[in-house]
Structures are given as C-alpha cells and as structure tokens.
C-alpha cells in the first residue's frame, strides 16, 4: 500500500493525501461472507445518543472475519486482498483445501497464491496462526487472543503488531505498541507478522465531506457554545475555558485524566505500564 499527494485542483484536494489502493487485488467481496449492518447513529438501546458525532455515511456490509483461526492442520491459499470499509487494514480471502472460504486480516507481505496454515505445527511465517507455546521468543505477532478460544482482540488495526518477549510459568510476556508489557496465557493464539496497510496513518482527509462519508458528524468546541450546553461555554468574545483543567460536557475531567479503575481485575497481568 502507498499514499499519493493530490494535485491542488480544488480546496478539498489541496492538502489531501489519499490511499492509492495499490495492494488491492480483488475488487468485489465474497457474498457468502457478508452480513447486514444497520446504522445505529451512536445511539443505545433506548434511542439516546451514547456516542456523539456519529451518523450518516455510506451504506456498507459487514465482512465476517475469522478472528479465531481455529481450522487446524488444513492448508489454505490466499485468493486475493480486499478493501474493508469497516476497518483501516486490508482483509485477505483464503480458501482451504476442502473449498471453504474465510476472511482474515491481511498481514504485511502476504500476496495471492501464498499458503497459510493454523495449528501448533505451522511454520513461523506471516499469516500462520499458532498458540504462544509454539511461537519462538522475539517473533512479531498480531490478532492476539486474551483468552484461549475467544478470538483475537489485540493488534487488529493497520500497522499494529506485538512482540513476544518471553515465557514463564504458563504465560507469555508480550510488548504492546504503547510500550505496555502484559502476560497472556500460552494457549492463546496469535498470527505471525505485522498487520498490513502501514501507511494508513499518513492519510489526510482534506475536506469535511470525506468524514461525512465515513459516518462522522461535525465536532464543535465547547468554548464556542453557551453555558447551558457546555461547561467551557459563555464569556464575551474569544475567551478561555474559565477552569483550571478542561472537562467534558458533563463535567468530567479530560485530556490526560486517567479513567482506568484503580483495582481492575486484569492488573495482575500487566508487568509494565505504557509509556
């Protein structure tokens, strides 16, 4: 994948840096692996807004991704690399020897025609899924499980990867992209390699309409609101927030305030906090 600087032929393309989609080899999705996806507009089961600035956007189907990688001992062939509108990484369509097809997250360097495999006896190469007990120390992995058999939860975004630092007492020690070091059970599975589409972080939208296509509505600063709408609002002319620290619209501290529970059940698995 790469990015391209758009020519400044309009205000929307003047600063736009777009994806060139050069790594896409398959243009149409597998119909049997699609599911309907209803737009929730950031609302909960009561119909109240629980996540602001969501709504609109283009219609899209959900691609059913195999996060568990539990089909062991059967070799699969990569048929193509596809664009997924629901995530910033690419997905790969694979076909097993018994003709079953599945979607997986496409690791960096994978190409159509490559062979991949799941299970403890798989080779250490990008795209193969193994338990931590069979992965050597120092290997870069992605799509990592937190509990055996529950499917990958960690390192699923474009360019994400974890590094296996060691194994001790039935647990593997991994280093997160944030710098945090954490223990994960050795029976949990991980996929070898780094997630592809590493240039996704370099894309610049260029115009507000691009975000509207993605289902993101405008965000308004609190200092330009009225006092009844935001704690930062009010004042004559251009004024500050009027507080020692910034807060959310509901008065909770923000911008650096730690919200993690002080006695969370997973604290015992964290060896070193993030940077």
Ordered list of secondary-structure elements with their pairings:
Layout: E1 3-5, E2 17-19, E3 34-35, E4 62-63, E5 76-82, E6 91-96, E7 101-105, E8 115-116, E9 129-131, E10 140-142, E11 144-145, E12 152-154, E13 162-168, E14 171-175, E15 181-185, E16 189-192, H1 208-213, E17 270-272
List the secondary-structure elements in sequence, H or E: EEEEEEEEEEEEEEEEHE
Radius of gyration: 22 Å
Poorly predicted regions: none
What name is given to the CATH topology of the largest domain? Answer: OB fold (Dihydrolipoamide Acetyltransferase, E2P)
Please name the fourth-level CATH homologous superfamily of the largest domain: Nucleic acid-binding proteins
CATH class descriptor of the largest domain: Mainly Beta
Spatial strand arrangement across the major sheet: 9-16-10-13-14-15-17
Average of the residue pLDDT scores: 94
Globally, the shape reads globular
How many runs of DSSP E, i.e. beta strands? 17
What percentage of the residues does DSSP assign to strands (E)? Answer: 15-25%
Distance between the amino and carboxyl termini = 29 Å
> What is the overall number of helices?
1
Structural class, from secondary structure content? Answer: mainly beta
How many domains? The number is 2
Helical amount among residues, as a percent range? under 10%
The CATH architecture name of the largest domain reads: Beta Barrel
Q: Major sheet, described briefly? A: 7 strands, antiparallel
């Amino acid at each position: 994948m790469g990015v391209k600087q758009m020519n400044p032929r309009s205000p929307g393309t003047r600063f736009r840096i777009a994806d060139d989609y050069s790594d896409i080899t398959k243009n149409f999705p597998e119909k049997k692996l699609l599911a309907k996806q209803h737009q929730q507009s950031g609302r909960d089961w009561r119909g109240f807004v629980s996540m602001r600035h969501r709504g609109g956007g283009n219609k899209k189907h959900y691609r059913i991704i195999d996060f568990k990688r539990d089909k062991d001992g059967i070799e699969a062939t990569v048929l193509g690399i596809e664009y997924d509108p629901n995530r910033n990484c690419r997905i790969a369509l694979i076909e097993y020897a018994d003709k079953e097809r599945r979607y997986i997250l496409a690791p960096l360097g994978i190409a159509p025609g490559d062979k991949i495999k799941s299970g403890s006896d798989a080779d250490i190469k990008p795209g193969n899924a193994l338990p931590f007990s069979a992965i050597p120390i120092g290997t870069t992995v992605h799509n990592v499980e937190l509990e055996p058999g529950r499917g990958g939860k960690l390192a699923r975004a474009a360019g994400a990867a974890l590094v296996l630092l060691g194994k001790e007492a039935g647990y593997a020690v991994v280093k997160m992209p944030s710098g945090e070091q954490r223990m994960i059970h050795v029976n949990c599975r991980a996929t070898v390699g780094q997630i592809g589409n590493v240039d996704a972080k370099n894309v610049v939208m260029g115009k507000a309409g691009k975000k509207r296509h993605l289902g993101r509505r405008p965000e308004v600063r609190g200092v330009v609101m009225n006092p009844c709408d935001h704690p930062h609002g009010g004042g004559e002319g251009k004024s500050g927030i009027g507080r020692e620290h910034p807060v959310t619209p509901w008065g909770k501290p923000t911008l650096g305030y730690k919200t993690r529970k002080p006695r969370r059940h997973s604290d015992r698995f964290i060896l070193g906090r993030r940077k």
